[in-house]
């Protein structure tokens, strides 16, 4: 077997495994409206440019407004008029100064927001998310029916070319986590969560200590899922087209800071089988690079593999048509980001996010 033919086999196996994993991803199931009251908490620090899209989406969702759901924006020391903007759009406002020692800003905001609401079901939404009508009710109902923690990975919308660098990170996040209820097979699924859209019954939130129990964690959603699982509370994760977000629109530096903060922690939380799946996908994608230079078979294999990569990326985001053909370069960037994130974490180097220094943990 010629060298490039062997490469084609390895690539085919890796991409097939990733495609099979993607086909098993489950969307948030539509359910009957929840019976309990709903409180929506939106932690926000310098989110004036993004928050209007979320608040407008919530205000136009008749299924949500008819239930009398409370919407609370927790202004975490913003300097760009986030609080004033949210108030002008009719949202409730809770203004905070900087978090106390030992707390991350997001956990401090979520904890205070949850404490300020009298609701049976708590829904936490990141300020850059845009839910479709009915999504919040479906998420809250899923949490109520399972009596546990339910979260959804939003579809990633991109506008500028550099944002495509997030594509392999998004794929790794969902393949490394999996979807549906978390069972007892730790080699296949471990308690994880997607922080941008998360819901939990208020009683269960208080039972585990809420965000106060994970106050110092950089990736608080994973830590909260772990706390719930250890307390015997159900945990489920989903991927769905019912909510989207645009990550890091500020520029390349913001993208690098965000993924540096999250990647190493997320990778360490993934179960062995899913870590192997992500590794196989990344390896196969990197091996695509020389195929166009290996004759007709290599070119044909590259085109087919690029089509598979495009389909895989479509499962997690809305990326430009050429992203699948640039998959080897994107995978290479992903490897660099993972190594950089892991090295900084191993050395105890802090991360910077939203103008604050976040201790590595």
Describe this structure in words.
It is globular and about 65 Å long. It starts with a helix and ends with a strand. By secondary structure, it is α/β, with parallel strands linked by helices. β2 (70-76), α4 (82-88) and β3 (92-96) form a beta-alpha-beta unit. It folds into 2 domains: 3-23 and 271-353, no CATH class; 38-249, Spore Coat Polysaccharide Biosynthesis Protein SpsA, Chain A (Alpha-Beta Complex), CATH 3.90.550. α11 crosses α13 (327-346). The model has no long low-confidence stretch (mean pLDDT 88). Strands 1, 2, 3, 4, 5, 6, 7, 8, 9 and 10 form a 10-stranded mixed beta sheet that branches. Strands 11-12 form a two-stranded antiparallel sheet. It is built from 13 helices and 12 strands. 52% of the residues are buried.
At a glance:
Helix content is 46%, strand content 17%. It is α/β, with parallel strands linked by helices and 361 residues long.
Question: Which secondary structure elements does this structure contain, and how are they paired or packed?
Answer:
Blueprint: H1 3-23, E1 38-44, H2 51-59, H3 62-65, E2 70-76, H4 82-88, E3 92-96, H5 105-116, E4 121-125, E5 129-131, H6 135-146, E6 149-157, H7 167-177, E7 180-181, E8 197-201, H8 202-207, H9 220-230, E9 235-245, H10 252-269, H11 272-286, H12 295-314, E10 317-318, H13 327-346, E11 351-353, E12 356-358
Parallel strand pairs: 1-2, 1-4, 2-3, 6-9, 6-10
Antiparallel strand pairs: 4-8, 5-9, 6-8, 7-9, 11-12
Helix pairs in contact: 1-11, 1-12, 7-11, 10-13, 11-13
């Amino acid at each position: 077997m010629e060298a490039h033919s062997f490469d084609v086999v390895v690539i085919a196996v890796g991409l097939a495994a990733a495609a099979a994993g993607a086909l098993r991803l489950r969307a948030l199931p539509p359910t009957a409206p929840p019976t309990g009251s709903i409180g929506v908490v939106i932690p926000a620090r310098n989110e004036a440019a993004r928050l209007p899209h979320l608040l407008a989406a919530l205000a136009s969702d008749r299924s949500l407004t008819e239930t009398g759901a409370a919407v609370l924006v927790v202004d975490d020391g913003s300097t760009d008029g986030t609080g004033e903007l949210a108030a002008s759009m009719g949202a409730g406002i809770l203004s905070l100064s900087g978090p106390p020692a030992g707390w991350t800003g997001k956990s401090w905001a979520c904890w205070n927001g949850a404490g300020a609401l009298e609701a049976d079901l708590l829904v936490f939404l990141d300020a850059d998310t845009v839910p479709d009508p009915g999504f919040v009710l479906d998420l809250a109902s899923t949490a109520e029916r399972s009596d546990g923690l339910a979260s959804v990975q939003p579809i990633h919308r991109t506008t500028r070319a550099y944002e495509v660098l997030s594509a392999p990170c998004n794929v790794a996040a969902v393949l490394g986590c999996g979807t549906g209820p978390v069972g007892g097979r730790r080699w296949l699924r471990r308690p994880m969560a997607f922080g941008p859209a998360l819901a939990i019954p208020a009683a269960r939130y208080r039972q585990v200590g809420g965000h106060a129990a994970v106050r110092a964690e950089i990736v608080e959603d994973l830590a909260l899922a772990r706390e719930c699982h250890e307390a015997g509370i159900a945990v489920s994760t989903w991927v769905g087209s019912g909510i989207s977000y645009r990550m890091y629109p500020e520029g390349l530096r913001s993208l690098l800071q965000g993924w540096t903060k999250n990647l190493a922690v997320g990778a360490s939380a993934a179960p062995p089988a899913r870590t192997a799946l992500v590794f196989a996908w990344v390896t196969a994608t990197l091996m695509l690079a020389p195929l166009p230079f290996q004759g007709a078979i290599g070119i044909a294999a590259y085109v087919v593999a690029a089509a598979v990569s495009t389909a895989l990326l479509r499962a997690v985001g809305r990326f430009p048509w050429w992203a699948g053909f640039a998959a080897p370069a994107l995978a290479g960037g992903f490897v660099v980001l993972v190594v950089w994130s892991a090295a900084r974490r191993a050395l105890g180097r802090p991360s910077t996010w939203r103008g604050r220094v976040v201790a590595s943990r």
